[in-house]
Design the sequence.
C-alpha cells in the first residue's frame, strides 16, 4: 500500500483505524531497527516504537507532505529515542564502551569489530556522527537526510566522506583493521 | 574477515575500503511474533488514550460550567444584597395604617427619645391684636358724632 493510500485511509474517521493499522504494518520493521540500534534492550525499543506510532497517529492530520512520510516518522522516532535516553540516564552504551576500551587485541571477531566501529563513530564530531549513522545504519538517502537535517545534499556527502575516512584511520591506528 | 556486508550498493561505494572490512550488519531481531502483535497493541493504546482525552475534555467542560454557574450566582447575590437597605423600606410601603398604628403602639418605648427632643418650630411673624378699648376708641373717632344706625 502506498503512503498516499495509507494517509487517505487514516484521515477519514470511518477508515482511520484501518489506516493506522496499515501504517504500522508498513513501517514497523524499519523503525524498530532504527530504534533498536540505539537502545540495546528489546523492551525499551518496543516501548519507544509504540510511543512513536502513538505520536504519529496524534499528529498525522498535521502532516503536510513536505517531506516523505518515512522521513517525518523517522524524525519522530529519533525524538522519542532522545527523550527516552534523557529519562533513563544510565544507558547500556556506557558500559559497552568501557568494555571495548579495555581490549587491545589486534585481531577482532566480527562482533568486536562492530563494537570498535561504534567506538570510532562516537569519537566523530557531532554532525559527522549523525550523518554516518543515518547513512550507514539507517540507510537513508541524501534527500531524506537533507529534509531532516536541513542541509544540502552536497554538504551531507562531504560529511559522510570525512566521517568514513576518520573511522578508517581510527581503526587502522588501533590495528583493528 | 567478512566481505562487504552492506546491502545498499551506493553506500558500499561511498564507504570505499572500509566497507570491505566491516562484518555483515546484523539486524536486531525482536522475539518471534513481535511484529504480528504490534499493530493491535498500538491501536489498543491509541483507543485507550483517545478515550482518556475525551473523558478529560468532558470533565474540563463540566467543571467550567460549574465554575461559571457558581460565579453567576455569586455575582447575582452580591448585586442583590449590596443595594442599600432595600429590604428595610419595602415592608413599610406595604403596611396598612392600622398595622402601622399597631406597630407604633407595640414599640412605643422606641419613640421616647424622639418625644424628649425639643422641637424647634420656625419663627412666625407676630400679629398684633389691639385690645377692645382701643378698638372702641378708634370706631368712635371714625363715626365723628354720627349715630351708628345712620350709617346703614
Sequence:
Amino acid at each position: 500500500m502506498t503512503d498516499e493510500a495509507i494517509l487517505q485511509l487514516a484521515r477519514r474517521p470511518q477508515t482511520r483505524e484501518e489506516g493506522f493499522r496499515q501504517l504500522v504494518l508498513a513501517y514497523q520493521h524499519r523503525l524498530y531497527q532504527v530504534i533498536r540500534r540505539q537502545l540495546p534492550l528489546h523492551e525499551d525499543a518496543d516501548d519507544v516504537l509504540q510511543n512513536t506510532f502513538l505520536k504519529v497517529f496524534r499528529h498525522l492530520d498535521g502532516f503536510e507532505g513536505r517531506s516523505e512520510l518515512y522521513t517525518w516518522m523517522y524524525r519522530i522516532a529519533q525524538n522519542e529515542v532522545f527523550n527516552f535516553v534523557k529519562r533513563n540516564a544510565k544507558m547500556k552504551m556506557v558500559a559497552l564502551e568501557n568494555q571495548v576500551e579495555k581490549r587491545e587485541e589486534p585481531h577482532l571477531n566480527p562482533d568486536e569489530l562492530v563494537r570498535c566501529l561504534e567506538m570510532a563513530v562516537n569519537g566523530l564530531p557531532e554532525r559527522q556522527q549523525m550523518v554516518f549513522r543515518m547513512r550507514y545504519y539507517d540507510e537513508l538517502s541524501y534527500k531524506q537526510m537533507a529534509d531532516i537535517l536541513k542541509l544540502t545534499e552536497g554538504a551531507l556527502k562531504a560529511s559522510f566522506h570525512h566521517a568514513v575516512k576518520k573511522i578508517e584511520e581510527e581503526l587502522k591506528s588501533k590495528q583493528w583493521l | 574477515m567478512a566481505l562487504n556486508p552492506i546491502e545498499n550498493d551506493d553506500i558500499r561505494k561511498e564507504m570505499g575500503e572500509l566497507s570491505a572490512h566491516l562484518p555483515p550488519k546484523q539486524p536486531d531481531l525482536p522475539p518471534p511474533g513481535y511484529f504480528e502483535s504490534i499493530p493491535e497493541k498500538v491501536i489498543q493504546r491509541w483507543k485507550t488514550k483517545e478515550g482518556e482525552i475525551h473523558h478529560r475534555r468532558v470533565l474540563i467542560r463540566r467543571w467550567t460550567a460549574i465554575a461559571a454557574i457558581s460565579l453567576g450566582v455569586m455575582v447575582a447575590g452580591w448585586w442583590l444584597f449590596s443595594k442599600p437597605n432595600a429590604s428595610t423600606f419595602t415592608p413599610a410601603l406595604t403596611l396598612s395604617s392600622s398595622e402601622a398604628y399597631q406597630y407604633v403602639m407595640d414599640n412605643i418605648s422606641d419613640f421616647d427619645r424622639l418625644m424628649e427632643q425639643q422641637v424647634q418650630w420656625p419663627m412666625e411673624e407676630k400679629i398684633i391684636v389691639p385690645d377692645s378699648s382701643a378698638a372702641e376708641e378708634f370706631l368712635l373717632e371714625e363715626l365723628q358724632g354720627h349715630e351708628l344706625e345712620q350709617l346703614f
